[in-house]
Write a structure and sequence with these properties.
Distance between the termini: 55 Å
Largest sheet: 6 strands, mixed
Number of strands: 9
Helix content: 25-40%
CATH topology of the largest domain: Rossmann fold
CATH class of the largest domain: Alpha Beta
Structural class: alpha/beta
Bound molecules: adenosine-5'-diphosphate, magnesium ion
Order of helices and strands: HEEEHEEHHHEHEHEEH
CATH architecture of the largest domain: 3-Layer(aba) Sandwich
Shape: globular
CATH superfamily of the largest domain: P-loop containing nucleotide triphosphate hydrolases
Strand order of the largest sheet: 5-6-7-3-8-9
Number of helices: 8
Keywords: ATP-binding, Nucleotide-binding, Transport
Strand content: 15-25%
Domain ABC transporter: 20-244
Number of domains: 2
Radius of gyration: 19 Å
GO molecular function, one term: ATP binding
InterPro entries: AAA+_ATPase (IPR003593), ABC_transporter-like_ATP-bd (IPR003439), ABC_transporter-like_CS (IPR017871), ABC_transporter_ATP-bind (IPR050166), P-loop_NTPase (IPR027417)
Protein name: ABC transporter ATP-binding protein
Length: 268
């Protein structure tokens, strides 16, 4: 018997536990008069091996949601289940240690797990090969371009032996051409290593280029407005007609959300 359509759309296999599951998660910052509802009853799951893009206007709670999943902060209400997953985070800024070599930056993740020196070096070299930075191990971060530094951050995330990648606008500061290249790289690595990815962006085309699904969050407080399955064949091109068409539809929906929010904020 075939799975229900919604499960097919999410690429989920019946009975399989999600890699990440959020159930009615809310987050309030502060207390009393200054309390700010950042997330309001967000429910969302990412199946093992699934690539989910979380899209929303700035300030809608995307980074908040990732920090809750990563366990850096606690939800005010609701439930988050990512217990069985090894989670690695990647930010817009690669956050490398400038005084360490590229290799040593990647080795940090292995050192934390008690891997011996020589093995650390060899494995860091392997991870740098995966992100096409073989031979750059002895450089310092400032000797690399922005795109290369993000590759190092990706290698470091992989070195954590993560099966779930949480990515917070990781390519937001890069030029369009570099971003395109990194999309290809990330897609390849995601496939080869069967990762589950929760990828935050405010770039609609990027979300459609990468995601199995695009989950649209409303402006503050963040709520799930709509979940768009992306059934376009991979690899996709950001500048293709198909990507543009779906991105146009999602942008229309996003615009409605932003306008609705702006009206609410206007003084009466
Ligand atoms: N530590 C914090 N304390 C108070 N307010 C915060 C904190 N972090 C984020 N916020 C607020 O919560 C809302 C959501 O922020 P954020 O998750 O960073 O949004 P996004 O990543 O979508 O731009 C914003 O209004 C922001 O100002
Ligand atoms: Mg953010």
């Amino acid at each position: 018997m075939s799975a229900p359509l919604t499960e097919q759309a999410t690429g989920r296999i019946e009975g399989q536990r999600p890699a990440i599951r959020l159930e009615a998660v809310s987050k309030i910052y502060g207390q009393g008069r200054t309390a700010l509802l950042a997330l309001d009853q967000v429910s969302l799951s990412v199946a093992p091996g699934e690539f989910v893009c979380l899209l929303g206007a700035s300030g809608c709670g995307k980074s908040t949601l990732l920090s809750l999943v990563a366990g850096l902060d606690r939800a005010t209400a609701g439930h988050i289940d990512a217990d069985d997953s090894r989670v690695a985070l990647m930010f817009q800024e690669p956050a490398l240690f400038p005084w360490l070599t590229v290799s040593a930056n990647v080795e940090m993740a292995l050192r934390a797990k008690g891997v011996g020196k020589q093995e650390r070096r060899d494995r860091a070299a392997e991870f740098l090969d995966i992100v096409h930075l073989g031979g750059f191990g002895k450089k310092r971060p400032h000797e690399l371009s922005g795109g290369m530094r993000q590759r190092v951050a990706l290698a470091r995330a992989l070195a954590q032996d993560a099966d779930v990648l949480l990515m917070d606008e990781p390519f937001g500061a890069l030029d369009a051409m570099t971003r395109d290249l990194l999309h290809d790289e990330l897609e390849r690595i995601w496939r080869e290593r069967s990762l589950s990815v929760l990828f935050v962006t405010h770039n609609v085309r990027e979300a459609v280029r990468l995601g199995d699904r695009v989950v649209l969050l409303s402006s503050r407080p963040g709520r799930v407005v709509e979940d768009f399955p992306v059934e376009l064949q991979r690899p996709r091109r950001t500048d293709s007609g198909e990507v543009a068409e779906l991105a146009g539809e999602i942008t229309g929906r996003l615009r409605q959300e932003v306008l609705r929010h702006a009206r609410q904020e206007e003084p009466a």
